[in-house]
Amino acid sequence: MTSPFESFHSPLSWQQVALLLDTVEYFEEALKWLSIPDEQGASVAVPLTGDTLRVMLAALSEDDAYSRQLFSFGWLPGENEDTGTLQVGLPTGEVVEKSVVLSQFSPV
């Protein structure tokens, strides 16, 4: 099975995650693939939901809104090519897993 993206790391700030969450909340009725910068600055499309972004935001401090922390993103394939589990590694070391149906997401 193919993966929708290769595993990567991304340095993100509180401000960036908050803006991503605002975007997801704006498109609440229609899930979107979000462009996340990898460590080299290239954009990687990731199927992120508001729930996942809220957990990511909680792992950061608004008091240091511009300081970047390293997140990791990975994909575990599901039973077919349309399903799988998004894994997000937080700066705290915790890993958040979210079941995803890829066909429910569209490009921003």
Structural description of this entry:
The protein has one domain (8-103). The protein has helices at residues 14-26, 50-58, and strands spanning 8-13, 31-37, 43-47, 68-77, 83-89, 95-101, 105-107. It has 108 residues and is an alpha+beta fold. It contains two helices and seven strands. The strands form two sheets. It has a four-stranded antiparallel beta sheet. A three-stranded mixed beta sheet has the order 3-2-7, with no helix packed on it.
Structural key phrases:
108 residues; alpha+beta; 3-stranded mixed sheet; 20% helix
Task: Summarize this entry quickly.
The protein is an alpha+beta fold.
Q: What is the arithmetic mean of pLDDT?
A: 94
**Radius of gyration computed on alpha carbons:** 13 Å
Unreliable runs = none
Q: How many strands appear in the DSSP assignment?
A: 7
* Envelope shape: globular
Give the topology, please.
Layout lengths: L7 E6 H13 L4 E7 L5 E5 L2 H9 L9 E10 L5 E7 L5 E7 L3 E3 L1
Helix pairs in contact: 1-2
